[in-house]
Amino acid sequence: MPVILSGNRTKNSVSAEDYPAFWISATTVINAEMDAESVRKRLISELLEAAGFGEATFRIEKEESGKPVLKTDLSESNTLHISFSHTKGLFIAGLCIDRRIGVDCELPERKVNERLRKRILSVQCGDTERGIQDLQLWTLKEAFLKMTGTGLRVAMNRVEISAPENSQWSYRAKINGEDTRADLLSFLYRNFRISVAVETG
After folding, report:
1. What is the Cα–Cα distance from 83 to 12, expressed in whole angstroms?
2. 92-101: average pLDDT
């Protein structure tokens, strides 16, 4: 399966500051004999090749928070951040050089009830959040929390989503009262909702 989205190739006019180098790969065909680890390794190999590292030997290590980081024999000067997500019928991986990344995917038919939506909307909820479809808002916030390394240990209503001005990114996010910020994209791929969060430099 080829890389489905690349930050440094999405638009020719985008500067490196707007789009750090990142790549997203996905597979919708998961052989019953393949375990999740085999799928992860295959996607990482595809991402490393797309990022110009060829067939590098790699291992996955974890930061103190539990967030995975990729170590390779070819990249001593760069930190290769990775993130994974899966849902029924889709497994995705994201790779970003020198900035943390988070990815999330969901089936389009997953429902977010009103009670859950209230727990997702931030305290400072503005027009941007109110205008985002429920499942998209969920995946944006979960991708952001995966990027931070906290995952769902932090309540989604602490994450504020806004629309950036003069940017190629769809959204921006931050956690109330903290400096952790990210740029976010959200798109449909084969009817799956995918969201990507990349740490703001």
Report:
1. 25
2. 88
pLDDT grade for 18, boundaries at 50, 70 and 90 = very low
Domain boundaries, the chain: 3-199
DSSP string, the chain: --EEEETTTS-TT--TTTS-SEEEEEES---TT--HHHHHHHHHHHHHHHTT--S--EEEEE-TTS-EEEEESS-SSS-EEEEEEEETTEEEEEEEESS-EEEEEE-TT----HHHHHHHS-TT--HHHHTS-HHHHHHHHHHHHHHHT-GGGS-GGGEEEEPPSS-SSSEEEEETTS--EEEEEEEEETTEEEEEEEE--
Compute the mean pLDDT over every residue in the chain, rounded to the nearest whole number.
78
Q: For residue 88, is pLDDT > 60?
A: yes
- Asked if residue 71 has pLDDT above 60, the reply is yes
Burial class (CB in 10 A: 0-12, 13-18, 19+), 139: buried
The domain defined by 3-199 folds into Ribosomal Protein L22; Chain A (3.90.470)
